[in-house]
Structure formats: structure tokens, C-alpha cells
Amino acid sequence: MKGLGELERTVMEVLWAREDAGGQAATARDVSRALANDRDLAHTTVMTVLDRLAKKGFLARERDGRAWRYRPMASREGYVTELMLGALNETGDRDAALAHFVRSVSEDEIDVIRETLAGLMSKEPPA
């Protein structure tokens, strides 16, 4: 999965936050309003970024009257996971990259990794 540019990431953050809060899909106007305090962007710029993100597969869109409503195709965590897997695919030695990564995380993060692995290991293999 390709990375996002700065403005694309900012727009995605608005949509991910909205989704995390249980909100419905957003129109370009909703996104423009959410960004108004932080950035001085023309509404047409927001519309262009949303359209580009939909064409790249980051957003799903549906018609709502004359407007489009946009929602993320994947969660923020899913997106970051795809970035991490893409980075691993770029290395010649995945094992070494994983080992280096694990050595660089905090104790709390190691606990999360251990718990996740334990959960995976405790599942019965399918028959």
C-alpha cells in the first residue's frame, strides 16, 4: 500500500477520527469544516483530495443527494499495518528487520507483542 502525502494524511485523520467517534460517512463540506481551524484550505482542494483518495482505494464513497459521502476503507491501524508490511517487503532480510524492530520497542509494547503471540499460539489449528 502506498503512503499518503501530508494533506492526504490530514484528511484521512479527520475521517478516521469521525469513524472512531461512531460518526457517519463525511461529505467534503464536513471535512472542510473539521479542518477550518487548523488549515486554510479551499473547499475545492478538499474535494480534490477526497476524490484522489477514493480513486487510490483509501476511501469508499456513496452519493447523498448532490454530494458524495466518504468513509475510510480501512482503519488507521490497518493502514499502518500495511505500511509496516510494505517496509518489511523492501528489506532483503525480513527476520533481521523484525528482530531489529522488536529490540527497538518499549517494554509495554513488548508485552503487547507477547500477549498477541500467546493468543495466536493458543488457537487450535483448523481440522
UniProtKB/TrEMBL annotation:
Presence of the UniProt keyword Nucleus in the record: no
Family annotation (Pfam families): Penicillinase_R
Any one GO molecular function term: DNA binding
Domain of life assignment: Bacteria
GO biological process, one term: negative regulation of DNA-templated transcription
Keywords on record: DNA-binding, Transcription, Transcription regulation
Family to which this protein belongs: Belongs to the BlaI transcriptional regulatory family.
Protein name: Putative transcriptional regulator
Taxonomic source organism: Actinomadura livida
